[in-house]
């Protein structure tokens, strides 16, 4: 059964709403949230405030006790809202917004950094240095090569724009292909030379030099990169800055061992943090980073919340509204 569409908070309800903020938020950020909303903040805990006033919450988790009709609006300090939505049904038509900030730029820089490191043989030179071994190694140009980028939203588009600036051919993968009216072929989507649908990616996977995922975790994307998709890869490097559970690690390991996937750079894992004995550390030709490609700053949170507040006050749906049915 589809979930009801979120409604914009009514002006009178928003005026009466209590501002609840996660205790983990920095005091400077809390002061800024108080300034934006024009009211004092109270701690966001699992004990409902002794009042029947509507609730405006800012944090990373919504306690079960607050998943009620009192919830007017929840602003997530994170871009990914899957942990928030996975904890239980979303309350009625409460508005859910999220923080993206400059995360797309940071993730794009991360992706490009690893691409350039690979083209300049940085892993090989690092290994040679550890052995005090001198050997010249060839470099590879990124210019003219193809990056297949899964996810064409704000983050995927930011990755695409930066790669385009380096002469990389960018192909975006969306839920469905984006085409314009005949006789026009592909509609222009900023950051991508063309956009294809997720069911049309087999050929593109075989042509790509890099396969990059910025996918959110939803019911449709869990285990998205499995045996079938990795079987279509022909020597590409796989980079995941989206969500760990979108990847079947067993299928990735098989593809790495038989050479279909050249390398893997994983900033996210299905279970984090990975324990020292976790088999994921043994994946061949793989680098794991600590979910750090797009760390959110307090400035990001304040800026995106302020924009959402301004939109709601003007009767507009905030640009960073989450469709709780889709999960992003």
Describe this structure as you would to a colleague.
By secondary structure, this protein is of the alpha/beta class. 30% of the residues lie in helices and 16% in strands. It has 10 helices and 12 strands. The strands form 2 sheets. It has a 7-stranded parallel β-sheet with strand order 8-7-6-9-10-11-12. The chain has a 5-stranded parallel β-sheet with strand order 2-1-3-4-5. Strand 4, helix 3 and strand 5 form a beta-alpha-beta unit. Helix 2 packs parallel to helix 10 and helix 4 crosses helix 6 (154-165). The longest helix is centred in the middle third of the chain and has 17 residues, at 103-119. Mean pLDDT is 93; it is low at 179-186.
Strand order of the largest sheet: 8-7-6-9-10-11-12
Let me know the number of strands.
12
Mean pLDDT: 93
The largest β sheet comes out as: 7 strands, parallel
Strand content range: 15-25%
Q: Which ranges are low-confidence, i.e. pLDDT below 50, for 5 or more consecutive residues? A: 179-186
| CA gyration radius, whole angstroms | 22 Å
C-alpha end-to-end distance: 18 Å
Backbone shape: elongated
Helix-residue proportion: 25-40%
Order of helices and strands: HEHEEEHEHHEHEEHEHEHEEH
